[in-house]
Amino acid sequence: MRKSCSRNISGTTGVSLVLFTSFLQMACGGSNSKHTVEPAEINAQGGSISMALTAKTKVSSLTLINADSDKPQPLDGVAGHSAIIPENAVINLAVVGQSLNIRANISGVGSVLFDYDNGALTHVENVAPYAFASDSNGDYSIWTPSVGAHVLKVTPYAGSDASGLSGTARTVHFTVKNSTAPSPTPTVTVTPSPTPTVTVTPSPTPTVTVTPSPTPTVTVTPSPTAPASLTVASVTLINADSDLPQALDGVPGHSAIIPDNAQIDLSKVGSSLNIRADNSGAASILFDLDNGALTHIENVVPYALASDTNGDYNSWTPTVGPHTLKVAAYSGADATGNSGPALVIHFSVINGVSPSPTPTVIVTPSPSPSPSPSPTATGPGNPANTAEPSSYSAPITITQGGTYSGNWKNTNSNQTAVIVDAGSAPVIIQNCHIAGPGRLIELRGGGNLTVRNCSFHGKTPTVANMAHPRAITAPGFRNLVIENNFFEGVSHVVITDQYNGDGSAQETIKVRYNIVNNIDGRQPDGGTTMCNFVAIQNYGGSGGNPRFAEIAWNRVINTPFQSNSEDLINFYSAGGRSDSWFKVHDNLLKGSYAADPANQDSSGSGMIVDGDQTSDSTAKTSYIESYNNTVLNTTNAGMNISAGHDIHYYNNRIISSGKLPDGRWMPASWAGVAIWNLSSGMYNVGMEGNTIGWSKQGYTNPYTNRNDVSSNEGGGIRNNTFLPNVPITLQMEADEINLFSQKVIANGIRLGPQQ
After folding, report:
1. Rounded Cα distance, 404 and 694, in Å
2. d(Cα 602, Cα 565) in Å, to the nearest integer?
């Protein structure tokens, strides 16, 4: 967060030329549109020419931001609820706090003009995120609105500094108050049955008859619940030229409903498309494509992902590759009020002949039993069986793009169960079991790989000086998505060395919703191999670090004497970008141990950001934020920073008893958090707002047998909460795991393989 700032703007002058362009190119990022073109401008000023937006372009919504966390701030203060500011909203500072900002939700424009209270304050933003009170690369400045009524008008412009053609302004009226909300209690009426006439006879006064007033009948008002109309039944592919459903196989009359794991072939369905959410009765629909890469709200039927005008659908062409679409219905306009269960659809887009139902593969000769069928689906959202099947197929090499399911196993440590060598063609591996003592999946040639709903089973090495197998090895990858998988007995879960993508939303890395049990780097000869849950290393390709990168909602639990690992999440000469930070959030990281944690030292932390301290390495090790994670009982430290710049850890829970299950102290346990090895290239690194309690025998920091903070070079560790001066127990660690499980359920997250 930064101190608040604002500035007034004045008019600009320049030469304007008129041209024509389509609405969708400006508003939705598409490349084709059949709609009537709109006049737009070219603003030529200062030697530069920029194409303008059409008059239809508008700000889709306004979001209240918590400037401390730089995250959306729900208006009712309840995590996960809507932060969008509707018309006539009430913002209670006692609920949302006083460290605020407002973000305008729009893309594809040159600038946004904010007008607060009819000119009392004006501000222009030229770069996303478009923040009313300004920001620095997504680090929002603090603004506290005054109590009372306000109006905010937000207008998009084609050029910078509010120049060029303007789009449609969005105006929102809201009221600010600062009062503690009363505890919500239902209105209850007690109706006596019946109410008799009461006669009171005092003495010695005369008899007086008192008839109480009739007691009105009061109804108990239950808490509101989402009506059945807030269910999105399905999503339908639309042909934006004909405005009719587009059959997925291109055959008229066939189904246009997009099922989970669908494949959309642009050579069959065309490139002028849209997607409709099938719902009636909702006040609004929120679309979320590729986890925030594109969000859009529709308030009027038909509910279209790429918008429409009274059923005249805008044209949208999805990019080739895997996608995830999340659609939720709301009882109020602009995604406010109650929400129903979200419909989540995974689909992939190709542009060419689809692979045959059984993709051509190169099979490495090796006798093996007949392959088992893929797991049988029993409905969306049901956890798949992670127990091993009775038989496996031999190792395979995938050389074509497509979707693959099956069960594969290698038989020795020098074999790889699945090799993916399909160039840049998207490959999806799903609904599978992969096992063996050798590498389980290896991506070659800078590929594009999605792995989901699979179970990985590491076996005892067949070579004395080799560890258990790596699960997913992806050197030089272009796009890597690892979601809803189960891993047991493997060494590295996901190891990436070099990113060769172009930095677009379609070429990134996401590791989410996975379950990991017992990472194991032990070797038969008694040695060990340093291994991680996720290794992000040496990202030096021409595309720079990836955009929209994320490690989130993973549950990693290691058991002493049954596992052996180094840092669970390890960044080395790699990170995010100034316009798109690498996000590590809402993970449970429990245990990182030596092979014999009762007697051996270990350098395994929960998370570390590291590098070789060269200027090149420091530039790459940057723009990383880690928040809402739970780190428990690791050796070395809970969370470290020892290289890079613009790295922030916040709202994490970092807790350790420092003990093994039998009550013995772990000699390798060191500290809760640390910033160390500070160099001149390290700056803007910090750990704030975390909850820390880290036991270390013989230390007194801040209490007996505690070492919550070790090195704090540069002073970036500040404003954290430390657990009280009481022994931190194994039961407290177990309670933290339960809290994480409750958080998963409360957020509707499904971990591990799903059918």
Report:
1. 45
2. 9
Distance CA 102, CA 480 (A): 33
Residue 424 contacts by C-beta under 8 Å, 6 or more apart in sequence?
A: 446, 447, 448, 478
DSSP H/E element including 692: strand 691-701
Task: Name the residue among 646, 497, 515 with its Cα closest to residue 582.
Answer: 646
CA distance 755 to 740: 23
**Which residue from 245, 257, 225 is spatially nearest to 343, judged by alpha carbons?**
257
Which residue from 267, 334, 263 is spatially nearest to 296, judged by alpha carbons?
334
Strands annotated E in 261-416: 262-265, 273-278, 284-289, 294-298, 303-304, 308-309, 312-313, 321-332, 336-339, 343-350, 361-363, 396-398, 402-404, 407-409
> How many Cβ atoms sit within 10 Å of the Cβ of residue 746?
11
Q: How far apart are CA 394 and CA 87, in angstroms?
A: 61
In what helix (H) or strand (E) does residue 620 lie, and over which residues does it extend? helix 615-620
The three-class DSSP label of residue 148 is strand
Convert 608-636 to b/e letters by CB count within 10 Å (16 or more is b): bbbbebeeebbbbbbbbbbbbbbbbbbbb
Q: What does pTM read for this prediction? A: 0.54
- The torsion angle over the Cα atoms of residues 617, 620, 623 and 626, rounded to 10 degrees, is -70
Are 471 and 511 in contact by the 8 Å Cβ rule? The answer is no
Whole-angstrom distance, CA of residue 61 vs CA of residue 84: 7
User: Residue length, the chain?
Assistant: 755
pLDDT digits (tens, 9 = 90+) for 629-668: 999 999 989 999 998 899 999 999 999 999 999 999 999 8
Cα 693 from Cα 723, distance rounded (Å): 5
Read off the pLDDT of residues 591-635 as tens digits, 9 standing for 90 and up.
Answer: 999 999 999 988 889 999 988 766 666 568 899 999 999 999 999
d(CA 130, CA 122): 13
Using CA atoms, how far apart are residues 269 and 512, in angstroms rounded to an integer?
31
Q: Which amino acid is at 341?
A: P
